[in-house]
């Protein structure tokens, strides 16, 4: 008497292909349910003028001292380089949260006579932010960025 299995190789292969197809469909459904925020809605248009951003980054790196920032409690303090004309500093500070576009914040640069600015971050949700500082002084433009983690 021979032992005969209840299924053959053909059934096993069909079962394997069916399981694979179900797994692929499940991954597609799962990926469509994921929230994906673009860095910016005008991504392609901004990509075309990115050379200007690179030039700003290079000018900021050439400064004898970069912008220092310090997070203390619910305050973010920016300290501009001493070589900057304090009355001529203008621009924007952006706190960009990659995981949630609704948590992004933008502030105008309003430095005091010592070249410092304090920003209240108590209203922002905790998490990782990309600190983006885009400023000008006299006729030159600069850009600097860093990572900031809020524990609110």
Structure, explained:
The chain has 152 residues and is an alpha+beta fold. The longest helix is centred in the N-terminal third of the chain and has 24 residues, at 9-32. It is elongated and about 100 Å long. The strands form two sheets. It has a four-stranded antiparallel sheet with strand order 4-3-6-7. A three-stranded antiparallel sheet has the order 1-2-5, with no helix packed on it. Strand 3 (89-96) and strand 4 form a beta hairpin. It folds into two domains: 7-36; 43-150, Immunoglobulin-like (Sandwich). It contains three helices and seven strands. It starts with 8 loop residues before the first helix and ends with a strand. The chain has helices at 9-32, 43-48, 50-62, and strands at 68-72, 75-79, 89-96, 105-108, 116-120, 127-137, 140-150.
Shape field: elongated
CATH topology of the largest domain: Immunoglobulin-like
The fraction of residues in strands falls at 25-35%
SS summary, helix count: 3
What is the H level of CATH, i.e. the homologous superfamily of the largest domain? Immunoglobulins
Count of beta strands:
7
Q: How does the helix and strand content classify structurally?
A: alpha+beta
Note poorly predicted spans: none
Question: How does the major sheet shape up?
Answer: 4 strands, antiparallel
**Main sheet strand line-up:** 4-3-6-7
Radius of gyration, whole Å: 26 Å
Distance between the termini: 74 Å
CATH architectural designation of the largest domain = Sandwich
Tally of individual domains = 2
Helix content: 25-40%
Top-tier CATH class of the largest domain = Mainly Beta
**Overall pLDDT confidence:** 88
Order of helices and strands: HHHEEEEEEE
């Amino acid at each position: 008497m021979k032992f005969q299995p209840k299924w053959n190789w053909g059934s096993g292969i069909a079962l394997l292909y069916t399981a694979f197809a179900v797994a692929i469909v499940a991954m597609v459904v799962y990926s469509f349910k994921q929230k994906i925020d673009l860095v910016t809605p005008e991504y392609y248009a901004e990509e075309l003028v990115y050379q200007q951003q690179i030039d700003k980054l290079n000018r900021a790196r050439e400064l004898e001292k970069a912008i220092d920032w310090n997070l203390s409690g619910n305050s973010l303090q920016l300290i501009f380089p001493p070589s900057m004309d304090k009355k001529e500093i203008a621009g924007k500070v952006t706190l960009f949260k990659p995981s949630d576009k609704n948590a992004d914040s933008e502030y105008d640069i309003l430095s005091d006579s010592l070249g410092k600015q304090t920003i209240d971050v108590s209203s922002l949700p905790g998490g990782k932010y990309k600190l983006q500082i885009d400023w000008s002084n006299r006729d030159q433009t600069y850009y600097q960025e860093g990572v900031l983690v809020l524990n609110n």
